[in-house]
Structure formats: structure tokens, C-alpha cells
Amino acid sequence: MAFDLVRLLITLKMKLHPINVGNFKLDGGAMFGVVPKALWNKTNPANEKNLIDIASRCLLIEDGNRLILIDTGMGTKQSDKFFNHYYRWGSLSVDKSLDSVGFCREDVTDVFLTHLHFDHCGGSVKWNSMKDAYELTFPKANYWVHPAHWEHAIHPNDRRAASAERGPVCTCGAVRRLSGVRVSRHRRDS
Q1: Sign of the CA dihedral 176, 22, 61, 114?
Q2: Per the confidence metrics, is the pTM higher than 0.90?
Q3: What region does 33 belong to: left with phi over 0, alpha with psi -120 to 50, or beta?
Q4: Could you give the C-alpha distances from 3 to 9, 14, 40, 132, in angstroms and in order?
Q5: 118, CA 20 to 30 Å: which among 3, 31, 104, 190?
Q6: Are 121 and 155 spatial neighbours (Cβ–Cβ below 8 Å)?
Q7: What is the maximum span of the chain, computed from C-alpha positions, in angstroms?
Q8: What is the pLDDT along the chain (190 residues), one digit of tens a residue?
Q9: Left if phi > 0, otherwise alpha if psi is -120 to 50, otherwise beta: which for 51?
């Protein structure tokens, strides 16, 4: 009981902000797998190319002197070929969303990556001004990921290889692996 009260008091001091970092279109069959289209198309109608609208949302947590971002969205560093498969649309961005709650990228102290799929961590790095190398999108932040998710990204199975971000975020040298944290496994992104 005392633990629950302490947890509640800590939570009350935190401020939570949903951060919409952009929208994209994704093949509905790829998103819903074995679920019949007749079911998912009712809530997520597909266009003539079977693409559905996806909103990429992150969570920003104010906790004392820490500003914590959960996931980063897909970012904008990918090639034109990539964006021919995942059509970005709308005018939302990480900068606009952070600005709407009074912050900027340099204010973020920690980035927690729930897993290393492109739509969750692709925005962790961006092109530098010369577009010849990547740099951290949140330059003052510590980046964190669970070791199991790191291993899944570095050594994905055939089914997961297409969505794993094995490149820039894994090679930038900034991602730290959490230790002593238990992870609950889920079958789909959340």
C-alpha cells in the first residue's frame, strides 16, 4: 500500500505530453498480418493501393530536471526509395510538436527506445548539414534501449529484418543498453 502511494505521488509530479512526429501510409496487410482485411478495414480503411494511415506518436515526460522522450518516430533521413513504400504526409514534425509544448530537441535529456523498428527509432539520428554523415537528433540526450531489443535489431530473423533499424541508430555509438530491466514481450508494436 505504501509503495502504491509513493508511486502515485511520483506520477503526480510528472507531466506527460503526446508528441506527434508525423504521419505515414503503410500496407494494411503488413500491419495487421493474418487478421482478415474485412475486420481491420472497418477501423483503418485502406486506399486503392491497400495503404492505411498511421500516426507516429511519441511520449514526452517532464520529470524534475529530466525531459524524457519515448521513441522518436521514423525521422526524415531515409532515401526516396524508402519513402516510396512509406509515404509521409501532413505537416507534423518532432520540432513542431516539441515547440507546441515549449521545448526543442536540445532540451531532451533522455531518449528511451521501446524497440528498434524504423518507425520507433528512425528519428534518433538525422543527416548533418553536409548530408554526408549522421548526427544525433537529440544531441544532449542519453539514448537507451533494452539489450534484448538491441540483439533483435543487430541479428534479426528473416521475418523481422525489413523493419529493424540496423544502420545509423545502431552504429552511432550513443545507444546505451539498459540493465536490470524486465521487458514484457508483446506480439505487435504498441
Answers
A1: negative
A2: no
A3: left
A4: 10, 17, 40, 50
A5: 104
A6: no
A7: 56
A8: 445 555 665 566 788 999 999 999 989 998 898 999 999 999 999 999 999 999 999 999 998 899 999 999 988 888 888 787 788 888 999 999 999 999 999 999 999 988 888 888 889 888 889 988 888 899 999 888 877 766 666 676 666 555 555 555 555 556 655 555 454 554 555 4
A9: beta
Task: State pLDDT tens for residues 90-143.
Answer: 899 999 999 999 999 999 999 998 888 888 888 988 888 998 888 889 999 988
Mind spelling out the 3-state secondary structure of the chain? CHHHHHHHHHHHHCEEEEEEEEEEEEEHHHHHCCCCHHHHHHHCCCCCCCEEEEEEEEEEEEECCEEEEECCCCCCCCCHHHHHHCCEECCCCHHHHHHHCCCCHHHCCEEEECCCEHHHHHHHEEECCCCCCEEECCCCCEEEECHHHHHHHHCCCCCCCCCECCCHHHHCCCEEECCCCCCCCCCCCC
* Cell matching residue 49: 493501393
